[in-house]
Amino acid sequence: MNKRAFVSICIAIFVAMLGMGIISPLLTIYAKNMGASGIWLGIMYSGFSLSRALMQPVCGWLADKRGKKMLIVAGLSAYTLVSIAYSFATDMYQLTGVRLLHGLASALVIPVAQAYVGDLTPKGREGTYMGLFSMSMQLGMAAGPIMGGSLFDIYSTMSSVFYTMAALAGMGLVCLVIFVPEMHTVHHQNMVKRAPMAVMLRDDKIKAIGLYLAARGILRQSISAFLPLFVVETFHSSLS
């Protein structure tokens, strides 16, 4: 196993998720200050996940055909540009458009990075290494909101949060480019025959996993979209 590549991709994803987590609790409040209604807040958050969901199968196919590192590099590059684009959004239409682009960039990074780690992992150690990789993602998402709220309280502007997010995505990109090698794609004739998608979707285990992920997504998005606004408006707390 290439441990340096594994550690490097975990660091890159940690930094990227740290940047993404920075805006997680602040975006609803930022949009509300733009005059967004509840339905627009829902559209803005759903747009991110919808564009990501539609793009992920395409990204998975491209990763198998063209190589995984190239896609993750493209995704982190897009993360950096999208982070800067947030600061130029002046109304809900523009902000929602940026969220759609952010979802597309996310589809290039997270699932492809998971597939890359799957290729690196020694047989029989999949749970251990995927657990460590998931830990790097969750730590980034955990530290991000604290950093974002503190940045806003210190500088009193969302631009500082967006530019920090861009800088972190750029750092993750540099780490990835320098330390993570490209995984060679497997030639079609050497690949194990795969079941068609329709056959997979009829499998009870796949159905159960899909339902679980859907339920978790609904719970997570409903809370992350509206809880920060509730806390600030009800308890008049600081953003940090």
Structure notes:
It contains nine helices and no strands. The chain has 240 residues and is mainly alpha-helical. Helix 1 runs antiparallel to helix 5 (92-120), helix 1 packs antiparallel against helix 7 (158-179) and helix 4 runs antiparallel to helix 7. The chain starts with a helix and ends in a 5-residue tail after the last helix.
User: What characterizes the major β-sheet?
Assistant: none
Percent in helix: over 70%
How many strands appear in the DSSP assignment? 0
Summed over residues and divided by their number, the pLDDT gives a mean of 86
Topology as a string of helices (H) and strands (E): HHHHHHHHH
Count of DSSP helices?
9
Overall 3D shape: globular
Distance between the termini: 40 Å
Proportion of residues in β-strands? under 5%
- Stretches where pLDDT is under 50 for at least 5 consecutive residues are 186-190
Structural class designation: mainly alpha
- Rg over CA atoms, rounded to whole Å, is 19 Å
Which structural traits does this protein have?
240 residues; mainly alpha
Summarize the structure.
The radius of gyration is 19 Å and the shape is globular.
Question: What is the topological layout?
Answer:
Elements: H1 3-23, H2 27-33, H3 38-66, H4 68-86, H5 92-120, H6 126-155, H7 158-179, H8 197-201, H9 204-235
Helix pairs in contact: 1-5, 1-6, 1-7, 2-9, 3-4, 3-5, 3-9, 4-5, 4-7
